[in-house]
């Protein structure tokens, strides 16, 4: 009988080969070496994690997400798939670095807070505007989004804040400065996500109804102020509430995404059967809608099931964490990752206003992919070696 890890990779290899063959028959010449390189990288990470006695259970889920994203990016534009492949390879190094960070006790909270604020400040002053948000930096020809790393640094700071009894004014300064810098950049999606994660971590550390009510009031006040001060937020809210009234302008992307999901039906139109050219920013913001059109409800449900499985794996990791600071860091990173999934998918389904963020591990975005792989590595490291888990 084939052992479970080998059977997992055998099944994964068959699934990937089928998709690549399908893509080749559909589109002709493709960069066949890219999925091979990604497959080898994830296989190496899986067995290396296993050899180091950590839990490799999340690797198959993430590998499927990344390769599925590669398939759709290749189907849209092979250039995007190539850039995503490079991002995944760098992300593999970030994963290993994350394991090392996860095994260390979080220290120097002001260092992590300062690093986050420095990245955001440099971006605010020297960044490049793309899509209305000044969220990019270009160094030596390489363009990346510093906010993806800054969010991780803020979570590491918050984990130590809630377990060390640090002064409230310090927290107010760090979060206030972070949100002001993100507002200056007109990049409100990450600010919203970090605030929600902060609220969850705070309530987990010490739940009080008064605190919950206070966070609700702050959310409403911040939303009202942002609605008045930021025209692009008003556009997104109006597109969320009444997209049909703005069919030819701000509601166009929302409606096209809904049309794509509806036309996908139960089993989809098949890979290559969707009208992806009608959805703006489809490779970053709306890749989930394309998957819904071409893979149907079964495909999107399977995709969400992968994220759910990844969340169960992460919370299982946290069961073995005895250090309260590490446990808080793991909780924050898990919420950061899956909160983003909710905001992206919820925005496309019109459950919440769309935030313009990428779907983790799937959508085009090398910086976000590197950051997400690093977060995954930290969670692996936080869970500790499996021998220690068994003892616990």
Report on the structure:
The chain is mostly helical and 392 residues long. It has one domain. It is 73% helix and 3% strand. A three-stranded antiparallel β-sheet has the order 1-2-3, with helices on one face. Helix 6 (146-164) runs parallel beside helix 14. The chain starts with a helix and ends with a helix.
Layout of secondary structure:
Layout: H1 4-27, H2 33-51, H3 59-76, H4 78-103, H5 109-126, E1 128-130, E2 133-139, E3 142-144, H6 146-164, H7 168-184, H8 188-205, H9 209-229, H10 231-241, H11 252-264, H12 287-319, H13 324-348, H14 366-382, H15 386-391
Antiparallel strand pairs: 1-2, 2-3
Helix pairs in contact: 1-3, 2-3, 2-4, 3-4, 3-12, 4-14, 5-6, 5-7, 6-8, 6-13, 6-14, 7-8, 8-13, 9-10, 11-12, 12-13, 13-14
Q: Outline of this structure?
A:
The chain has 392 residues and is mainly alpha-helical. The protein has 15 helices and three strands.
